């Protein structure tokens, strides 16, 4: 029996171990991030508060960093390694190198994680409650930045590993087109190299030396801008692997073929070109960046809608092809012919549906004038729980049900539980995210432990704030339950015995193949050069103007590690400054008013 | 469900029942047009609705500020 099996672990046993390790690291981060998620949901909505409000920001940092850095990136290095080895049909060049980058990433994120979690223990003089964005003047312990650097260097080496495989394959197959999954990995990696330059400069030249005490001050606007240089394209680093799954796995599980290989290549090229020169759209409300630069960022952002709409077309057309081959008919009746009982399909399709909704809230965020309405409100939180929190996370969880048997050689513990899990995630996120969006429209702020104030109430045109809070909390509970089911399945599968009935390690065929794609699409050097030029256009002048105004190391700002002592210090400072200001204002009024009256 | 049944279900569902083979030239993705068209209409409707949320649901923001500054309000 076992000779007949053709799963990934049978063809690439050594690589399967690395992919498995990356998956388990990713799931561990997901579990931690999930725990902090439910804690903050219940705290914010005032259903159950057991942490100190000051610790809320440590919880929020842990939730953000563990989910959007470790969960997503560990998972994607796993599937990228799978994609390279499977589509080139060759082992990695040196498995020791592959383990080395995995271990570097693991050590890095562990150091950052220790720095974050130490924030809960008062007796340890270490904290990193700086949120995922680590804006100065919020300052973290040096260990946090060092860990992030190691983690990112690990991902760079992973990219090198994938390129090495491709170079070796190309030397043996000089006249062949790059296989589509490899093409997707390479373009995404190039985009990632370009994007991480921003955060590398921010950390290595400014934030880390500042945290170590080597330099006294930083220019907060400069480090923020460098963060968003990386911070926007990083969302495509999470999203591209999900897109890859929609392009190469979803058609197969639908029972059809990918509609168009050339269109898929165009989409990934567009993301390589346009992902980076858009970061300033996160800074529409930052003073110190001229409106014109923001307008350029907005234009680039709007162009980014194009590859996402192309994806919507190609992916839906591929699903329809599957449905029609399965006997589906009618304008919308074909939807019934899709394999909705398969958790791999249902999870990915529901994730895609949520992403369509996120498309609209993203368009609102992207528009410079409308952004003012929702900037820094709960709306934005609702938006990214649809994108990274569902389009990406739900796709990853759904494909886990296909990948886990492939890399463990064991049957999935329960498909029914898996189906329940993906549906529960969809329902939970519908409650939570729509309430977050609506809350944002009322002006309810994000990043606030207890958004309720004396003598002021948010007024809802429809429903009430209590109802919104209830929906957020209910959604959070459903999502937590969904996670419990997910981990039950992962653990159950790991404990299962060896299975002889695994599906073969294959991805979707195409209706219109690479032979229909213009050769120029595979010219990675050209697309990288265009991407670099666009980044130079979009960023040179804003960065020069920020440095010109605020200086390379900025005006004198005090570092602000978030701890109870500093809060007490700040309160003291505000009280004294406030009293002093009031006194001087009073004096001024006393001097001026009589003068005016006279 | 015991494991044998589970695996059987798996391998059965993994091989989607393909009733017919549709090639590149026969495939006309009309259903995709319907869904994408529907999505487009939803986007237009929401975009229209946005006007009411921003300008009529809240006090005027930028406009109000200008009026205050130039002393018209």
Could you please describe the fold and organization of this structure?
The complex is a heterodimer of chains A (598) and B (73). By secondary structure, chain A is an all-alpha fold. Chain A folds into two domains: 2-407 and 415-448 and 472-555, Cytochrome C Oxidase, Chain A; 564-598. Chain A has helices spanning 8-11, 13-44, 56-88, 95-117, 142-172, 180-212, 220-231, 233-248, 250-254, 261-274, 291-325, 343-366, 368-374, 378-408, 415-441, 465-495, 524-550, 564-597; strands at 258-260, 510-512. A two-stranded parallel ribbon of chain A has the order 1-2. In chain A, helix 6 runs antiparallel to helix 7 (220-231), helix 6 (180-212) packs antiparallel against helix 8 (233-248) and helix 12 (343-366) packs parallel to helix 15 (415-441). The longest helix of chain A has 35 residues, at 291-325. Chain A is globular. Mean pLDDT of chain A is 92; it is low at 592-598. By secondary structure, chain B is mainly α. Chain B has a domain at 28-73. The longest helix of chain B is centred in the middle third of the chain and has 27 residues, at 30-56. Chain B starts with a helix and ends with a helix. The chains are: A mainly alpha (598), B mainly alpha (73). Chain B: The chain crosses the membrane at residues 30-53. Chain B: This is Ba3-type terminal oxidase subunit CbaD. Chain B: Keywords: Membrane, Transmembrane, Transmembrane helix.
Which spans of chain B have pLDDT < 50 for at least 5 consecutive residues? 4-13, 61-73
Number of helices of chain A: 18
Helical content of chain A (DSSP H or I, runs of 4+):
over 70%
| Number of separate structural domains of chain A | 2
Strand element count of chain B: 0
Overall residue-averaged pLDDT value of chain B: 69
N-to-C SSE string of chain A, H for helix and E for strand: HHHHHHHHHEHHHHHHHEHH
Order of helices and strands of chain B: HHH
Report strand order across the widest sheet of chain A.
1-2
Helix content of chain B: 55-70%
Calculate the terminal CA-CA distance of chain A, rounded to whole Å: 104 Å
Q: Superfamily at the CATH H level of the largest domain in chain A?
A: Cytochrome c oxidase-like, subunit I domain
Strand count, sense and barrel status of the largest sheet of chain A are: 2 strands, parallel
CATH topology of the largest domain in chain A: Cytochrome C Oxidase, Chain A
**End-to-end gap of chain B:** 72 Å
The CATH first-level class of the largest domain in chain A comes to Mainly Alpha
Looking at the overall shape, the CATH architecture of the largest domain in chain A is Up-down Bundle
């Amino acid at each position: 029996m076992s000779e007949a099996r053709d799963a990934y672990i049978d063809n690439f046993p050594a690589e399967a171990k690395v992919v498995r390790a990356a998956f388990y690291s990713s799931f561990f981060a997901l579990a931690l991030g999930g725990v902090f998620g439910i804690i903050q949901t219940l705290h914010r909505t005032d259903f159950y508060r057991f942490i100190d409000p000051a610790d809320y920001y440590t919880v929020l940092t842990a939730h953000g960093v563990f989910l959007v850095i470790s969960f997503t990136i560990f998972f994607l290095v796993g599937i990228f390694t799978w994609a390279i080895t499977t589509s080139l049909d060759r082992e990695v060049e040196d498995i020791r190198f592959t383990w080395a980058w995995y271990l570097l990433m693991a050590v890095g994120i562990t150091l950052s994680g220790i720095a974050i979690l130490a924030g809960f223990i008062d007796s340890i003089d270490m904290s990193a409650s700086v949120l995922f964005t680590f804006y100065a003047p919020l300052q973290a312990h040096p260990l946090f930045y060092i860990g992030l650097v190691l983690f990112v260097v690990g991902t760079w080496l992973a990219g090198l590993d994938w390129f090495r495989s491709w170079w070796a394959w190309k030397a043996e197959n000089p006249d062949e087109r790059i296989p589509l999954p490899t093409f997707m990995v390479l373009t995404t990696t190039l985009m990632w190299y370009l994007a991480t330059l921003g955060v590398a400069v921010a950390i290595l030249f400014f934030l880390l030396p500042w945290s170590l005490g080597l330099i006294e001050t930083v220019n907060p606007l400069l480090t923020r801008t460098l963060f968003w240089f990386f911070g926007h394209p990083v969302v495509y680093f999470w999203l591209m692997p999900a897109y890859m799954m929609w392009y190469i796995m979803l058609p197969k599980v639908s029972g059809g073929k990918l509609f168009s290989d050339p269109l898929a290549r165009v989409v990934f090229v567009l993301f390589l070109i346009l992902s980076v020169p858009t970061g300033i759209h996160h800074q529409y409300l930052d003073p110190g960046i001229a409106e014109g630069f923001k307008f350029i960022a907005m234009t680039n952002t709007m162009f980014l809608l194009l590859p996402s709409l192309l994806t919507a077309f190609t992916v839906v057309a591929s699903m329809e092809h599957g449905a029609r081959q399965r006997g589906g008919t009618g304008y919308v009746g074909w939807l019934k012919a899709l394999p909705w009982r398969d958790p791999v399909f249902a999870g990915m399709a529901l994730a895609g549906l949520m992403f369509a909704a996120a498309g609209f809230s993203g368009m609102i965020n992207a528009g410079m004038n409308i952004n003012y309405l929702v900037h820094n409100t709960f709306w934005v939180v609702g938006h990214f729980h649809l994108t990274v929190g569902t389009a990406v996370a739900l796709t990853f969880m759904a494909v886990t049900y296909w990948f886990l048997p492939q890399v463990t050689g064991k049957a999935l513990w329960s498909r029914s539980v898996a189906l329940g899990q993906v549906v529960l995630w969809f329902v939970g996120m519908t409650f939570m995210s729509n309430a977050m969006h609506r809350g944002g429209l009322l002006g309810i702020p994000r990043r606030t432990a207890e958004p309720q104030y004396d003598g002021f109430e948010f007024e809802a045109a429809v429903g009430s704030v209590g109802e919104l809070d209830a929906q957020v909390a209910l959604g959070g509970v459903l999502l937590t339950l969904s996670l419990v089911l997910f981990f039950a399945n992962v653990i159950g599968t790991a404990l299962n015995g060896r299975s002889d009935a695994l599906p073969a390690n294959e991805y979707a065929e195409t209706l219109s193949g690479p032979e229909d794609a213009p050769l120029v699409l595979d010219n990675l050097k050209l697309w990288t050069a265009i991407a670099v030029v666009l980044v130079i256009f979009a960023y040179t002048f804003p960065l020069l103007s920020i440095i010109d105004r605020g200086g390379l190391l900025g005006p004198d700002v005090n570092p602000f590690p978030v701890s109870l002592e500093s809060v007490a210090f700040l309160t003291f400072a505000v009280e004294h400054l406030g009293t002093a200001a009031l006194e001087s204002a009073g004096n001024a009024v006393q001097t001026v008013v009589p003068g005016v009256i006279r | 469900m015991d494991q044998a049944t589970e695996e059987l279900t798996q391998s059965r569902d993994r091989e989607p029942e393909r009733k017919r083979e549709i090639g590149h030239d026969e495939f006309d993705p009309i259903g995709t047009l319907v869904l994408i068209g529907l999505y487009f209409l939803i986007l237009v409707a929401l975009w229209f609705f946005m006007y009411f949320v921003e300008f009529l649901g809240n006090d005027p923001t930028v406009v109000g500020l200008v009026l205050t500054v130039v002393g018209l309000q």
